[in-house]
Amino acid sequence: MRILTFTSLFPNRMNPDFGIFIFQRTSHLAKRDGNTVEVVAPVPYVPSFLKGTARGSVVSIPSTEEIGNLRVHHPRYLLVPKVSMPLHGLLMYAGCLRYVTRLHQKHRFECIDAHYVFPDGLAAVLLGRLLGIPVVVSARGSDIHTFQDFTTVRPQIRWTLRHAAGLSAVSDSLAKIMRGLEPSLQDIQTIGNGVDGGRFFRQDRRAARETLGLDPQDRIIVSVAALKHVKGPDLLVRAAALLKKNFARCKVLFVGTGSDLRSLRQLAEQFDCADICQFVGPVPNEQLRTYFGAADVSCLASRNEGWPNVILESLACGTPVVATGVGAAPQLLANPELGIIVDPTPEAIDAGLSRALEQKWSPETLSAYAQGHTWENVAARVEVVLKRATEQMAD
Under a CB-based contact definition with an 8 Å cutoff, are residues 292 and 200 in contact? Predict the structure, then answer.
């Protein structure tokens, strides 16, 4: 198939880890026999004189670049942050229209594989209708959880869901919300993410701790997540304060960055657990293996999720997971030999972590389970959905 992948969530020269899960899925789709894939990853237009500002890194993203085995195009579109949100999908469509039309004239795409229902999915469906090709839209999480609450955006999400030739969601719970939004939907495929077994695998825990300068005698909990409310880092800080009472030697490593960093530091001081809460900052994806490998347990305290990649990444490294029961977490940790599902409260997270630290786990079992979720299998399932949409339009 000749496939156009359309998504703004994709790695680029300035941010090589951005949307890396979509890169993995697309890359493996492109490797399947008979497939050719071009990627359009639009970015907002930023004037060159803003190059040195927080938004200015976008200026340095080239119009076309090679990412792995994929050619990636970055057309620009007009966007005023926050103000333009209700028009985001339409502005993306308008900015990409001529660019995508020229690409289609050259490659004659058979379908569009779009990621993120709004704004990307809306723009992609509009492009597909113009070009006369089917569009399969994949819901990722916050595109459904967050944007449906905005009265100006909700109707656009529903329109996109109705007019897509195919739909997928990364979790059963997300698919259920989509059906609630648009009851007419008949078929939503649940296709989760895979794990890169060449990047995430078991290693010696003592060696990993030595690399990170961590005490081999400490109980180590690692949380890999953005420091923002939806990911629940405040819940984990409060849980750390409770955990400290029962475990004299423990450390909680927060790997990631975000707007809540300052308030989280203050919260740790307030609850007298700043000495065990270490805010590591952002870590490149290829280095996360060392943090998972060094930990006794990883923790995901999210209030909402789609498909939390960090669960499989942790398990692939032989590290059990304590996670709140949101998104695909209950699916991934259905077997109690893999981890513990808890409620999103400090008390429940503390109890789950305490159990996990005392329980004996089998790193071999954890890793083998995760390594079974290959990107090759994910790409094969995506290909089936794309082919079905293409054949239905042909009929």
Answer: yes
Q: Are residues 386 and 324 in the same domain?
A: no
Residue 198 sits at φ, ψ, to 5 deg, of: -80, -15
Q: Tell me if 297 sits within 8 A of 321, measured CB to CB.
A: yes
**Together in a domain, 172 and 65:** yes
DSSP three-state, residue 131: helix
Q: Are 12 and 39 in contact (CB under 8 A)?
A: no
Q: Is the pTM above the cut of 0.85?
A: yes
- CA 83 to the chain's CA centroid: 25
Residues 141 and 49 in one domain: yes
Q: Does 200 fall in a domain?
A: no
* Rg for the chain, CA atoms, rounded: 22
Would you say 64 and 81 are in contact if contact means Cβ atoms under 8 Å apart?
no
Is residue 379 a part of any domain in this protein? Answer: yes
Do 35 and 178 sit in the same domain of this protein?
Answer: yes
The two tokens of residue 174 are 């997300």
Instruction: Map tokens 């670049």 to a residue.
Output: 65
Cα separation, 58 vs 214, in Å, equals 36
Domain assignment present for 269: yes
Angle at 136 between CA 135 and CA 138, to 5 degrees: 140
Q: How many CB atoms lie within 10 A of CB 163?
A: 15
- pLDDT tens digits, 187-233: 999 999 999 999 999 999 999 999 999 999 999 999 999 999 999 99
Phi, psi of 245 (to 5 degrees): -70, -25
317-331 pLDDT, tens digit each: 999 999 999 999 999
